[in-house]
Amino acid sequence: MPSRYLNFRCSVPWLILLLILLLETLFLLRFLFSFPDVSDIYSPPSVSYPEFQDVNHMVIFGFGFFLMVLRRYGFSSTGFNFLLAVLGVQCCVLVEDLLVFLKAEQNGSGLKSLAKAVMSTTAVAISTGAVLGKANPLQLIVMTLVELIVFHVSRCINRTFLKVPDSLSLMHVHLFGAYFGLAVASRFPGAPPGLDKNRSTPQSELFSVLGSVFVWVFWPSFNSILAESKKEAVLNTFFALAVSAVTAFMLSALTSRDGKFRMPHIRSAVLAGGVTISYTAHSIQQPWIAMILGLLGSAITTLGSHCLQRCFNPALKLQDTSGVHFTFGLPAVLGAVAAVVLSVVRKGIDTQWSNLSSLGFTTFIDLAAFCQTISAALITGLITGFLLNTKLLKTVPVSKYFDDQFYWEFPHLSVGF
What we know:
One of its GO terms (biological process) is ammonium homeostasis. The protein has 417 residues and is mainly alpha-helical. The protein has a single domain, classed as Ammonium transporter AmtB like domains (Ammonium transporter fold). The protein is built from 16 helices and no strands. It has helices spanning 3-6, 12-33, 38-42, 49-66, 74-101, 110-130, 137-160, 166-170, 173-185, 202-224, 230-255, 263-269, 272-276, 287-316, 324-350, 356-388. Helix 2 (12-33) packs parallel to helix 5 (74-101).
């Protein structure tokens, strides 16, 4: 194997150093030329530290362990997720400051801005799951920067032209991350049939389910941290998650040949309720609606895993390593449709169905926001996929897919041990 494939010393450390110098310089300019708003000093912050801590745990611990599904890719799954998260948060803060400077976004308090940055990096964690084991650190860093910039631009379009609330536009993170990652993954060659490193073991599945449990526990804070009705958002998210977890166990036993539970079903479907309810958690007044959405989200995840892996993915020659399409993509689409339907019903009841033209325009705007998000994710994801597979970014040979030893040092495997 050529040495240029086996050593990233001349690329990854220098790219990280360049990013650190650039980020630190921009942060220095940010604090030198920006002044806090007086209202932010004397008013209590809208985001508390416990809420921010929950979201931070969800991104670092939850997704870090959730991605440990491959038997020989545990170091890279957790390590690269942590690296991309901390780089992505700094990038998000600076991009948001740039939008504030351009008058495209309203200024917010420091902790609120940081919380939105951490939530935005969820898109990167989801997209990483689609290309898990195929993209090298250099490619992942470039993908992170491009994805977060495009995601903020997409949110800005939704807020400016389609008048989507800021907190609701951030809930597109699951939709954007899933389809951006799938578009990028479509540009990577598939693993050969004889390569068995892309499978899991009981130990790796156990760690991955542990990550799902972390995400499950902290998801109510994720959905409620920016919501005006925090109590309703927490309650609805918990009910949706609880029903999706119960449904996951039920459908796992029903769809298995021998009637036993399957850990991949549990790992993915227990999270479907949190994704599906993310758009409407703050506005639902009856908990039974949240429970129905959790049930439907879990069902579409469990049943979709069979259809996508056996029919859809082979036809498109797409390898979704950790199943982000049926774990986050399909439940996000279901949640988007549910948000439109509930919005139409709620506004129709309020106006007694007397102003159908206004109701139709509102529906069109809601659908346009979701379509714009998916379109931006797919188009820019395809372009990013082509960019990542250039020789400049040192494409990983297929034989080295899904292998920690390509990136990490294993002293016990070295000569002399």
